[in-house]
Amino acid sequence: MNKLYIGNLPDSISSADLEKVFADCQIPLGGPVLLKTGYAFVDCPDESWAMKAIENLSGKVELHGKRIEVEHSVPKKQRSCKLQIRNIPPHLQWEVLDGVLAQYGVVEACEQVNTDSETAVVNVTYASREQARQAVLKLNGYQLENHALRVSYIPDDQSVQGTDNGRRGGFGARGAPRQGSPGAGPVSPLKSQHADIPLRLLVPTQYVGAIIGKEGATIRNITKQTQSKIDVHRKENAGAAEKAISIHSTPEGCSAACRMILEIMHKEAKDTKTAEEVPLKILAHNNFVGRLIGKEGRNLKKVEQDTQTKVTISPLQELTLYNPERTITVKASIDACCKAECEIMKKVREAYENDIAAMNLQSHLIPGLNLAALGLFPCSSGAVPPLPNNMASTPLYSSYTTPEQETVHVFIPAQAVGAIIGKKGQHIKQLSRFAGASIKIAPPEDSDPKVRMVIITGPPEAQFKAQGRIYGKLKEENFFGPKEEVKLETHIKVAASAAGRVIGKGGKTVNELQNLTAAEVVVPRDQTPDENEQVVVKIIGHFYASQMAQRKIREILTQVKQQQQKGQSSQPQSRRK
Predict the structure, then answer these.
(1) In what helix (H) or strand (E) does residue 5 lie, and over which residues does it extend?
(2) DSSP secondary structure of 155-202
(3) 8 Å CB contact between 164 and 180
């Protein structure tokens, strides 16, 4: 993707004029300029230079009275479903961008690209060529918070260097969490994934020099002693009061490096008399923070009590497109701060591993589901790992058959209905288009309801998308407190004849479900089947717990259905005998 198309050129332009434009911006060319009437093609040395040319020249440089357009050169045969969208406002909420993209079709993937520009860049894959074509036509020049979007095709068969593995990476204002090299081998099994969650620290810029040391001597010493890889993101966000540091190692290695960095900062503060107190600041993806806090803040209180520290967490309002991380500030002595770091990161890693297990189950049960593209899981840990060997059985939904439509009832706080519907129904329409599901709000059952029922109808992947966005919206709009995890009650209907299989002998199956998924699963025994001979199974839990429980229950129902069909098909044969 090093070849660029340059459009909107005046007829009087020469190759030398274009070469001078690139030279003025200090962007090297990888070959001669191929000049045509009104447009031209150039080669850049690599993708990073090509991206720099697009960001610095397109729509910004004027030649003979015309502003030139610069974008990736993609032959018509390769113009498929993949687009690059540039000049996105840096503080734009993902919810807004998703709504805009969903107007033109089903978005299968949306990956943020790491660039040096102040605005954001994403690569988007639509479900069909026609949807991508419509998006190019309608989104080019689309005004979003006083930013005119720029859209161009990129080849489907090439991956963009610098693209984050997944969607919402924690890069940008605070520097990029390390993603691993593109040529790295397969991700190791789940049990050895600790190093995939780096310890991310936020340190005062004034202490960065002391942490690095003369010619990098101090940071090399820390790396050597702790057997870790340390990235100091000193170039990002020039002029910022704080810089991010990413430490990649075992939990013990991360903690040892953290202690050494804290000791350096305390010594530097004392020697320079710049601060009386230097707190430990840990960056953690927002997806994990709810479980770190715990119900009614119990987990966080226990950490404070056990380590004799004061721990505060930055508010949700500070999250942006570029920054999905929250700052966990720990105040105490060095020893106490280090103890708190161990406890905090232990909770973060547990949350990560639980989510990975849930996501692996999703990818196992729904072939082709692009989990990383749904925006429901942080990317700071790299790509979603492959399915563990003990789960590699035959998937329930064959990729050659149409997924079965499912209906799920999700109960949300009554006061949140307006946020889910949006102004003039815009949000619920966008959500429906994004997920590919039917989403309706049921009428209230009484005059003063505490909860309202959202009816979602669609295949498994659509359910995952729609429910995930509803959970996220409720958290984003503060319908759950900053120290409270979003837990919703979900109902799915099952055939009355299959309810016993969900419960199991003596409640064994339902108990196993609860232990496996961390969700509360209830099959009321006194239910009267409805007109379709169905009863309700209640599931209560956070998003991944609920999703895993739903999929496992669907798996049981599928097995029951298959056994019934097998029994019916064998009956005519026995009669012939």
Answers:
(1) strand 3-7
(2) -TTSPPTTB-SSS--S-STT-PPP---TT--PPPPGGG-GGGS-EEEE
(3) no
Q: Are 44 and 73 in contact (CB under 8 A)?
A: no
- 508-546 burial by CB neighbour count: b if 16+ within 10 A, else e? ebbeebbeebbbbbebeeeeeeeeeebbbbbbbbbbbbb
**Number of residues that this document lists for the chain:** 577
446, containing H or E segment? none
| Residue carrying the six token digits 């502003």 | 67
Per-residue pLDDT of the chain (577 residues; tens, 9 = 90+): 577 878 888 888 888 888 888 888 888 887 888 888 888 888 888 777 877 787 788 778 888 888 888 877 766 555 678 888 888 887 776 667 777 888 888 877 777 776 666 788 888 888 888 888 888 888 888 888 888 888 888 865 443 333 333 333 333 334 444 333 222 333 333 333 343 688 999 999 899 999 998 888 899 999 999 988 898 887 666 667 888 899 988 999 999 999 999 999 999 999 988 888 899 999 998 778 888 888 788 889 999 999 999 999 988 767 654 567 889 999 999 999 999 999 999 999 888 877 776 666 555 444 444 444 444 444 443 333 333 333 333 333 333 344 678 999 999 999 999 999 988 888 898 888 888 889 999 998 888 889 999 999 988 888 888 898 898 888 888 888 766 778 999 999 999 888 888 888 888 888 888 887 778 999 887 888 888 889 999 999 888 788 888 988 988 888 888 888 777 766 655 454 4
Q: Say which residue the tokens 């610069």 belong to.
A: 70
Query: Which residue from 469, 470, 429 is spatially nearest to 452, judged by alpha carbons?
Result: 470
Tell how strand 34-35 and strand 40-43 pair up. Answer: antiparallel
- State the DSSP string of 346-405: HHHHHHHHHHHHHHHHHHHHSTT--GGGGT-S-STT-SPPPPPGGG-S--SS-TTSPPPP
Can you tell me the distance from the alpha carbon of 114 to that of 173, in angstroms, rounded to the nearest whole number?
A: 11
